[in-house]
Structures are given as structure tokens and as C-alpha cells.
Design goal:
Elements: E1 20-24, H1 27-30, H2 69-72, H3 76-90, E2 94-98, H4 101-104, H5 115-130, E3 134-140, H6 146-152, H7 159-174, E4 181-185, H8 190-193, H9 198-201, H10 211-236, E5 241-247, E6 250-253, H11 258-280, H12 285-294, H13 304-310, E7 315-319, E8 323-326, E9 332-334, E10 339-341, E11 347-348, E12 354-355, H14 357-371, E13 375-379, H15 397-416, E14 421-427, E15 447-449, E16 461-463, H16 465-475, H17 479-486
Parallel strand pairs: 1-2, 1-14, 2-3, 3-4, 4-5, 5-7, 6-8, 7-13, 13-14
Antiparallel strand pairs: 9-10, 11-12, 15-16
Helix pairs in contact: 3-5, 7-10, 10-13, 14-15
Length: 489
């Protein structure tokens, strides 16, 4: 039984009853079934696996006798009933997942959707409804149809705005009675923050291209598409709530040097660039400073300003895993694909990510202070190697410690700093394929999936120790952590 100790205090120290606890995945990392029911190829379907220290190889098409991790992934396509039942057993109140664009429009440019693809998601939504799990749907999570890259040059091409809007219109109409919370683009700032923006925007830079000019023009098309979808969605169902989704690592100055503090300001500007347009509906002085810094001149159509103004978001979704130090000197490290410097005050994971729970509290305050919009932590988790003991158990105390510390920091932001946070979904609530490396051995889940880095194994699902820990946390609405905050022993 879970402990439900009553919290002493003035009665205001309890987590909100409406707070949503759950987990998150993405179609390309868990679904599989990459050619079933008429699904087309996505940009991830031509990526091979790699070790964590190497870049993943991108092929122009699928090659024989090559392992592509997304093709089978963990086969959620055939196991969704079992997996959702396990989520329900943990007590999930919400489940964040993505709808694969290439499953609904296999090429991306069709006029009519693939009905078989829609029927798969019909079944997924019905299963979630059965357990009263609220879906949180990401409309674009690194799953752009490959044809749109090959024939239209990806988000460089303004035509893609209409292709994406058509996909979203079909999905929002189909599930207008099933979904409240929508996220348009996963980690949209990765388009400019990440040196290799293939996942986010299907971009591979040519030798003669200025990377900032290309990435920010592509970003403009994505931002217009997002705003257009938000406006359309509110017509389909006025109760819809739309969010942007930002990859937000905390940046600290590497030294007390004012130059390093200025470097932090500049790094944050690439996050706020996207947040400002999504929330304020315009390119702010922060955005204009980015243009000037890199000599960028965007092609903006006359109607775009009105589209951006009309399509602002209701909340901000964010992923938080680590922090980085920023400065003039220091050796570079790589976190969630973002380059920075190691912080000597923090521990580092096997994959080079620095563990910084306090940074989550800082992140929530930074975003809420700037935008005064509700926040939703839609990704947070620890990638680690898990071992199955002889009796079939997985003792992942390191994962429990990581999540416990981050949830405590979140509660500090909510209960002490009075930041409005809607909910919390851990990343990779069930083991899935790593986006950065394609490995299975980099595991995040509460549920172990018996597959190795080559896709070999039984696919059997096993509950880790963290499964039972998270179940108790949800059942008590985080009361044990809250008690520790206000009644430390």
C-alpha cells in the first residue's frame, strides 16, 4: 500500500487536484509497423542506429540487410492494448504520444488521408478512453514524411505549411471529442539549437548554404504552420488547448566573467525566439537580435503577421533533462544534442548529460516569469542501462532517485514559487528507441522491453522497481515528496 501521510501546514501545500500525471512517447520511437496499413516512410525510417559517440547515418532510401530502429521499434503497433493497460495499472491520468504524419498521409502531399492509418489511432484512443487516460497529442514529433524532403526540400518550402495544415485538420476533426491538449511541434527550437536539425525539420545543409538563414526561414514556415493549425483547431473545437513545445536546458555562466553571462543571454535567446512567437504572436526584439547576429533576412508574406497574431498558444510544453555551462573557454560536451560545457558541480550520466534537478525549478520560473502561461512538463527522464536479475526483476533505484529529485524541484516551483504547472509526463514511460542514437540500451521506462540494440529479443514487457514507485506517487498525488518539502526531518 502507498503511504498517504497528511501534510501539516496552512492547507495550501497540496498539489492541485487537477494536476495530470503520466508518461510520454513518440510514434517513431515506439510504434513500429513502419510499412503496415499503407504507412509511408518518415525521415526517421532511413536512420540507422549508432553508438552514443557517433552521428547516426541517414540513407536516401531503405537499404536491404540494414537495421533501422524505427521500423519495428518496440512494436507498440501490435502491443498497444497491453502497454496502455500497464499505463493504467500505474494510474496514468494522461499519456502523451504523437500521431505519425506519414501514417495518415504516406507521402505528405496527398489530398485524401489513409483511412487504415486513422483506424489504428481510433483503436488507440478507444483504449485510452476505456481507462480514462487523457491523451496529450503531439502533431509533429520528428516524423516528417520522407517524400516532403526528397521532392519539396522540407520546411525550406512554403508549400509544406499547407500539407501540414491538411494533416492536422484531418486529425483534429477525427479526434475532436477525444483530445483537449495538443502540441504542434516537438522541441521546435531544435531547428536552430541542434547542429544537425534532421529530426526536427528534415534539413541537411548544403555546402553553399548559410545554416542560420536556412534554419530560421524553415522555422518561420513552421511557426506560421503552427499558428494556422491553432486557429483552425479552435474552429473545430473551441475547447481545444494548444501548446508549443520547447527543448529547455538551463544555461549557467561558466565563470563569473560578464562575457560568460552575456553568452548565457545569447544562448537563451534561441529558446525565447520560438517561445516569443508562439506566445506573443510576433517577432520580438529578441528575435530581431538573433536575425542581426547572423545576418538573417526572412521572407515573410504579408498575411503571415496576422496568422502569427491569431494563432498564439494556450500553454507551454517543455522537455527538461540537464543543464549546461556556457562560456568563452572550456571543453564542449553534448547533452540532448545541444553543445555546451560541463559543470564541475554536477554529476554526469553515462551519455554525458549532467543531472541538475534544481535546474528544473529555475526553468519553470524562467518560463513562467517571461510568459505567464501555464506550463506542462512533457518530457523528463533518465536514460540508463538496466539489467534484469536472475529472478526477472529490474532494480532501477538510480531512475527513482533522478525522478524523485526532479519532481521535488517541480513541486518547489508549484507550491513555493507559485508557478502554474498543468502536469508532468516522464519521457519514455516504456522503454523505446533512443532518438539521438537509435539504441535500445539507453532505457528510460518504468516498463522494460526485452529488445537489444539490434532489435533482437522477445519484446516481453517487465515492470521495473520504478513502476511501483511511480504508481504510488500518482496514487498519492506526490504527497510524500510534498511532505518532505514542508516537514523535513
Amino acid at each position: 500500500m502507498c503511504r498517504t501521510n497528511r501534510i501539516r501546514g496552512d492547507g495550501n501545500e497540496m498539489m492541485p487536484k487537477t494536476f495530470l500525471w503520466g508518461g510520454a512517447t513518440a510514434a517513431n520511437q515506439c510504434e513500429g509497423g513502419y510499412r503496415l496499413d499503407g504507412k509511408g516512410l518518415s525521415i526517421v525510417d532511413v536512420e540507422r542506429a549508432s553508438t552514443n559517440k557517433q552521428k547516426r547515418i541517414i540513407d536516401s532510401s531503405v537499404l536491404n540487410d540494414v537495421h533501422y530502429p524505427s521500423h519495428d521499434a518496440i512494436d507498440f503497433f501490435h502491443n498497444y492494448e497491453q502497454d496502455i493497460a500497464l499505463f493504467a495499472e500505474m494510474g496514468f491520468q494522461c499519456y502523451r504520444f504523437s500521431i505519425a504524419w506519414s501514417r495518415i498521409f504516406p507521402r505528405g502531399d496527398e489530398l485524401e488521408p489513409n483511412e487504415a492509418g486513422l483506424q489504428f489511432y481510433d483503436r488507440v484512443f478507444a483504449e485510452l478512453k476505456k481507462y480514462r487516460i487523457q491523451p496529450i497529442v503531439t502533431l509533429s514529433h520528428y516524423e516528417m514524411p520522407l517524400v516532403l524532403v526528397q521532392m519539396y526540400d522540407s520546411w525550406r518550402n512554403r508549400q509544406v505549411i499547407d500539407f501540414f495544415t491538411r494533416f492536422c485538420e484531418v486529425v483534429m476533426n477525427r479526434y475532436k471529442d477525444d483530445v483537449i491538449y495538443w502540441l504542434t511541434f516537438n522541441e521546435i527550437n531544435a531547428t536552430v539549437e541542434v547542429p544537425r536539425p534532421w529530426h526536427q525539420a528534415g534539413l541537411i545543409y548544403r555546402d553553399d548554404e548559410d545554416q542560420y538563414q536556412v534554419s530560421l526561414q524553415a522555422s518561420h514556415h513552421m511557426l506560421v504552420a503552427s499558428a494556422q493549425v491553432v486557429t483552425l483547431g479552435r474552429v473545430i473545437n473551441p475547447d481545444f488547448k494548444f501548446g508549443c513545445m520547447l527543448l529547455y536546458p538551463v544555461f549557467y555562466p561558466l565563470t563569473p566573467s560578464p562575457k560568460d553571462t552575456q553568452a548565457v543571454h545569447e544562448r537563451l535567446s534561441y529558446i525565447y525566439y520560438y517561445g516569443d512567437v508562439h506566445v506573443k504572436g510576433r517577432y520580438t526584439h529578441t528575435c530581431q537580435a538573433v536575425w542581426q547576429r547572423h545576418g538573417v533576412k526572412l521572407q515573410i508574406e504579408r498575411e503571415d503577421e496576422q496568422i502569427l497574431r491569431n494563432g498564439t498558444v494556450d500553454f507551454i510544453g517543455l522537455s527538461y533533462y540537464f543543464s549546461l555551462a556556457v562560456g568563452i573557454d572550456g571543453s564542449n560536451s553534448e547533452g540532448n544534442l545541444i553543445v555546451g560545457n560541463k559543470n564541475p558541480y554536477l554529476e554526469t550520466t553515462q551519455w554525458g548529460w549532467q543531472v541538475d534537478p534544481a535546474g528544473l525549478r529555475i526553468t519553470l520560473n524562467n518560463l513562467y516569469d517571461r510568459y505567464e502561461k501555464p506550463l506542462f512538463i512533457v518530457e523528463n527522464g533518465l536514460g540508463a542501462v538496466d539489467e534484469v536479475t536472475a529472478d526477472g526483476k529490474i532494480h532501477d533505484s538510480y531512475r527513482i532517485a533522478y525522478l524523485d529529485a526532479h519532481i521535488e524541484a517541480m513541486q518547489q516551483a508549484i507550491l513555493i514559487d507559485k508557478v502554474d504547472v498543468i502536469g508532468y509526463t516522464t519521457w519514455g514511460c516504456i522503454d523505446l528507441v533512443s532518438a539521438s542514437t537509435g539504441e535500445m540500451s539507453k532505457r528510460y521506462g518504468f516498463i522494460y522491453v526485452d529488445l537489444d540494440d539490434k532489435g533482437q529479443g522477445t519484446k516481453k514487457r517487465l515492470k521495473k522497481d520504478s513502476f511501483y514507485w511511480y504508481k504510488c506517487l500518482i496514487e498519492t498525488n506526490g504527497a510524500d515528496i510534498t511532505k518532505r518539502l514542508f516537514n523535513p526531518e
